[in-house]
Write a structure and sequence with these properties.
CATH superfamily of chain A: Acetylglutamate kinase-like
CATH class of chain A: Alpha Beta
Oligomer: homodimer
Helix content of chain A: 25-40%
Radius of gyration of chain A: 17 Å
Structural class of chain A: alpha/beta
Order of helices and strands of chain A: EHHEHHEHEEEHEEHHEHE
Largest interface: A-B, 43 and 43 residues
Strand content of chain A: 15-25%
């Protein structure tokens, strides 16, 4: 099974509110359809110029707090809208999608896991996450996304798509976790734009991480992604950073060709 | 707390696929906003010419079965689309919506309720349903909808908005459960078009139920609604059938005026 994140910077133009990059998503969808013919696929998408844009506007973050309830509604609604656009395009590519908003998978403080026990650091409902795998193996393509989530007591928080990738990786052990982005991979530096093709745990500790944040980005850009990649590979799952605007590189995963940055879990 | 169903025949033109009746929804939204200023509101909407239309096309029903997985995807995606359109309009009316797809609230055979115990006939997750009430009391307006749901083993089923109304009524005991429709209420007969203004349990047993099904309607039209009304009022919750295209009648709920059919739970 392969997990693929459709990065917010790929599926939208993050500098233009509510802009959906339909052609880019379509081409990625075609590549993903090709992959899905060989193995189950689960997709996660980011918020881009929909959820991210509004969460920045309303100063909402990943830590639960009494953020503006107007903002909470606006961010959540914008993600329904983006998700609907994505589902449409993926359907055109032949993918039989299963829409799964993250509220289905995680419990909240107001709706704890039955006896109040904590399942894991993600507050994930184990049965629901396992069910996703069953659904994917049945020929459907689950589609999840980062979202604004209810916590308790008028508090909300942002659950990012990157954290969802970590959660699913830890709980489902896909053979690969792919992060599509609008750059070719992890650069050694912003100046050289030289891609690091392969990273192992030792290498990761050695180099400087370039913080590739845009002004509108609430969840920390490339730093967050490298953090997620580190976490995921430390859980025994390989990670691949690839340019989503170059969909052939997605297709080439089938041929074990990785034009991007490959994080080995060994 | 008041529960309101936005009937599929009101929010869409059920004979025209993917037709959204934006103006009607807007006017209802204004009335609902008025109600929400006095008490918490939870909304449920039907599938109309989105989910209903496609579930008929793919011959999908409320009983779990190995229906077409293509159909399952198409129905589910169409509901995301309709829900997004509704959320947009309700936001324009000032409502601070909280999108809650029914998969958040019910467990499946693949994702049972923790220890496999059965909570109730709706397979509802009690903590999640209670959380909705907390969210509504916090100034948000939860919006749920009928949907295509995963069961297990490539089986799916249709969970209708009417059943969701029954479920929420039984578990949350709103002061009133309102069903908006495109007629003035329950007729004594199709010929007379005379509205029955008030129904008690005894009366319900006495008259002939007019089956107001359209060709595209999968969940049984008026028969299903009366069945839901009967069930809800037998659980101690009053029910009101009202014409959603006459939104003043929704507003008049505030003034205890009920121009439609009122099912008394006494």
């Amino acid at each position: 099974m392969i997990l693929i994140k459709l990065g917010g910077s790929v599926i939208t133009d993050k500098s233009v509110p509510l802009s959906f990059s339909k052609d880019v998503v379509y081409k990625m969808g075609e590549a993903i359809y090709g992959l899905s013919e060989s193995e189950p696929v689960i997709l996660v998408h980011g918020g881009g110029s929909f959820g991210h844009y509004y969460s920045v506007q309303y100063d909402m973050h990943t830590k639960p707090r009494r953020y503006s309830l107007d903002g909470f509604a606006i961010v959540r609604n914008s993600m329904v809208k983006l998700n609907s656009l994505i589902l449409d395009v993926l359907a055109q590519c032949g993918l039989r999608t299963y829409c799964c908003p993250p509220s289905v998978l995680v419990y909240s403080n107001d709706a704890p896991y039955h006896d109040g026990s904590i399942t894991n650091k993600y507050n994930a409902i184990p049965e629901r996450v396992q069910e996703l795998q069953t659904i994917a193996k049945s020929g459907m393509c689950p589609v999840l996304y980062g979202d604004a989530m209810w916590h308790k007591d008028k508090m909300s928080y942002i659950l990012s798509g990157d954290v969802i990738m970590s959660m699913l990786s830890e709980m489902l052990h896909p053979r690969l976790a792919v992060f599509t982005m609008d750059v070719d991979g992890l650069y050694t530096s912003m100046e050289s734009k030289k891609i690091i093709p392969k990273v192992d745990a030792q290498r990761l500790a050695e180099f400087n991480i370039t913080d590739d944040t845009q002004k509108n980005d609430v969840t920390g850009g490339m730093v967050r992604k490298v953090r997620a990649a580190t976490e995921i590979s430390s859980n025994g799952v390989d990670v691949f950073f690839v340019n989503g605007k170059k969909p052939d590189r997605l297709t080439n995963i089938l041929h074990n060709k990785y034009a991007g940055t490959y994080f080995s879990s060994d």
